[in-house]
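Much of the work behind modern protein science is quiet bookkeeping, done one molecule at a time. The protein below has been through that process, and both of its lines are reproduced in full.
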Amino acid sequence: MPAVENAKRRSSLANDNTCFACGRNNPHGLKLDIRKTDDGVELDYVPPAKFQGWRGIVHGGIVSTLLDELIAWACTARGFDAVTGELNIRFRRPMKVGVMVHGTGRITRERGKLLVGESRLTDEGGAVIAEACGKMMKA
């Protein structure tokens, strides 16, 4: 279970551990281990070849999923379950299959039912692979 799993819940969303991104019971999923930090969440992940698009490059949909999940778990770490309302992604360089990436996510603004967050994926050298801004709706 992701360490963030223990965050206080304020919604009726049910987690049955089959989420494509973080669910441990999804045999086809990413099984991400997202950890709470002082200002949000983080992960380290080595994408396998089964998630590639072009040879040796992780499919952009998987990159997008990682960025979205980091913002969603940053909401959870703050005590709210939320669903994505909008996600804007900037791809900077290809994510390589089999190479460790580091991801961070945090909430930058809260207003009523709206949470605004950002996430970033970097390679082992610290170069930015992709980054996102997202608007999340509290559930």
Observations:
- The chain has one domain: 34-138.
- The chain has a mean pLDDT of 90.
- The helical segments are 60-77.
